[in-house]
Design brief:
- By secondary structure, the protein is an alpha+beta fold.
- The chain has eight helices and eight strands.
- It has a three-stranded antiparallel sheet with strand order 1-2-3, sandwiched between helices. A three-stranded antiparallel sheet has the order 6-7-8, with no helix packed on it. Strands 4-5 form a two-stranded parallel ribbon.
- β2 and β3 form a beta hairpin.
- α4 packs across α5, α4 crosses α8 and α5 crosses α8.
- The protein is globular and about 80 Å long.
- The two termini are about 30 Å apart.
């Protein structure tokens, strides 16, 4: 889960943030409107009322180290529930694996969608802010085919795709109430906008991710230098230590490329992103 902040105030309680919850297996998402300064108890109640009551007690939670997620209250509550907490760190931003890229995509999706939320108006000139329209984005995402699973999140979560609003609306009516017609227009416009946001955010995140996370093509036996960012056992002033150490030779192990032992007492297995 990740907290998207910096959003304009919206809704009857002037929400300015969105808690994004992403399920690893089904790839389904839940978008919860909230406040940036919500306490750990506020967030726990939000998840209990909007997530747990509809699904089940969460088995694992991966989040950043926001104070609310590292507080004693949050930790103790999930100890009672039997939920394991995992945190991503600055040195290992990919702790959550695929979720790291997915969360970034969802954040971009929410920001793009919310940025244009104020454009939607009904026949009475009532402006629907991003809080009002956010469920449409969540629904559109759940019924869109995911590239990695080739299935919609709804199929993997429930076993069936929900009937879409546009499939249920009758096309031919002798008379239609102006408010009903306005609602249908807003519904169609919101759905189309949500689909565009989903496509744009995936394309943007993929391009940005690929540029900054290009994996080096190392082979067994290659000599590499290893970043000393995480080396805490080097004597002397840390600010004067070399940025990289080595060279180290690579060897195969369990299908992965690992380092042979070098001059320091290091873990034999290190990520390629720390090598050059």
């Amino acid at each position: 889960m990740e907290l998207v902040t910096g959003l304009p105030p919206g809704g009857d309680r002037s929400y300015n943030a969105c808690l994004v919850i992403f399920y690893r297996f089904s790839k389904t998402t839940i978008f919860l409107t909230c406040h940036k300064d919500d306490t750990a108890m506020d967030t726990a109640l939000l998840i209990w009322n909007r997530v747990v009551s509809w699904t089940q007690i969460l088995t694992n939670i991966i989040s950043d180290r926001d104070p609310k997620f590292t507080s004693a209250l949050w930790t103790n509550l999930h100890q009672l529930f039997g939920t394991k907490l995992f945190f991503s760190t600055a040195y290992h931003p990919q702790t959550d694996g695929l979720a790291g890229r997915m969360i970034q995509t969802l954040e971009d999706m929410v920001r793009i969608f919310c940025a244009y939320g104020l454009e939607f108006e009904d026949c009475d000139r009532f402006t629907n802010d991003w809080c009002t329209l956010l469920p449409a984005l969540e629904f559109a995402y759940k019924t869109s085919i995911n590239a990695s699973t080739n299935q919609t999140p709804a199929i993997l979560e429930k076993g069936w795709n929900p009937k879409l609003p546009q499939d249920s609306l009758r096309k031919y009516l002798v008379e239609i109430h102006p408010t009903a017609a306005s609602f249908k227009k807003i519904l169609d416009k919101t759905r189309k906008h949500a689909v565009r946001c989903i496509k744009d955010s995936f394309a943007y995140t993929k391009e940005k991710w690929d540029k900054s996370h290009a994996m080096p093509d190392f082979k067994v036996g290659d000599l590499v230098l290893v970043s000393t960012t995480n080396f805490n056992n080097i004597k002397g002033c840390k600010n004067l230590k070399d940025s990289f150490s080595g060279p180290f030779s690579l060897r195969p192990s369990m299908g992965k490329i690992l380092m042979k032992s070098g001059p320091f007492s290091l873990r034999p297995s290190m990520g390629k992103m720390l090598m050059k």
